[in-house]
């Protein structure tokens, strides 16, 4: 691979919570391994290019969600990307958008239907720090992040949870409270901000491995003591 291409989808709409940082972390962790990497910002009104190596979506308010959904459904590029098995990482509103439906502005909105997940409205806002144990993907490091949402996301049989909650709120306030995020095919979703990749470098490396056609086990390790120190502090270790 000559250059790793990272698609940052609608940063002008889904950029409320600093999730743009996920693309920055991917680019930096690639470059630290000697892999040239570039971020391609895909703004509102622009088609989603289908030739990039990995795609990131962030969070946003109800109105931003609706605008982003309308654009992405009309464009169709992200569906082609998912159908081709290209890795996609989505956070919070991005998570809900990729599902079958979500509620925004008091109404039910049909999502992109790329993952088997339906989002209704929580009784009270989920907000605060979370930790979760990863499920699958070769991941071993405990997840850490900050959530802030009113969505109750229930996973259908085609989707699997990204992690099992250790502390803090999960996807819903009911039967799936103990689960965080979702995976399906080449798509990984989460409610964790932080940004998620800055706080969970192993998760970033999983996406990087998938984007470069290798495995997490074969990806060259990085030794960044300050990152591990911050993780230990956040996990209370």
Automatic annotation (TrEMBL):
Gene: gatD
Catalytic activity: L-glutamine + H2O = L-glutamate + NH4(+); beta-D-GlcNAc-(1->4)-Mur2Ac(oyl-L-Ala-gamma-D-Glu-L-Lys-D-Ala-D-Ala)-di-trans,octa-cis-undecaprenyl diphosphate + L-glutamine + ATP + H2O = beta-D-GlcNAc-(1->4)-Mur2Ac(oyl-L-Ala-D-isoglutaminyl-L-Lys-D-Ala-D-Ala)-di-trans,octa-cis-undecaprenyl diphosphate + L-glutamate + ADP + phosphate + H(+)
Binding site for substrate: 125
Organism: Corynebacterium mustelae
The protein's role, per its UniProt record: The lipid II isoglutaminyl synthase complex catalyzes the formation of alpha-D-isoglutamine in the cell wall lipid II stem peptide. The GatD subunit catalyzes the hydrolysis of glutamine to glutamate and ammonia. The resulting ammonia molecule is channeled to the active site of MurT.
Residue intervals of the CobB/CobQ-like glutamine amidotransferase domain: 5-200
Record carries keyword Transferase: yes
Gene Ontology MF annotations: carbon-nitrogen ligase activity on lipid II; glutaminase activity; transferase activity
UniProt KW Transmembrane keyword: no
Enzyme Commission number: 6.3.5.13, 3.5.1.2
Annotated pathway: Cell wall biogenesis; peptidoglycan biosynthesis
Domain of life: Bacteria
Family: Belongs to the CobB/CobQ family. GatD subfamily.
Active site residues of this protein: 92, 193
Keyword set, alphabetical order: Cell shape, Cell wall biogenesis/degradation, Glutamine amidotransferase, Hydrolase, Ligase, Peptidoglycan synthesis, Transferase
Assembly with partners or alone: Forms a heterodimer with MurT.
Gene Ontology terms: biological process: cell wall organization; cobalamin biosynthetic process; peptidoglycan biosynthetic process; regulation of cell shape
HAMAP family hit by this protein: Lipid_II_synth_GatD
Protein name (Swiss-Prot/TrEMBL): Lipid II isoglutaminyl synthase (glutamine-hydrolyzing) subunit GatD
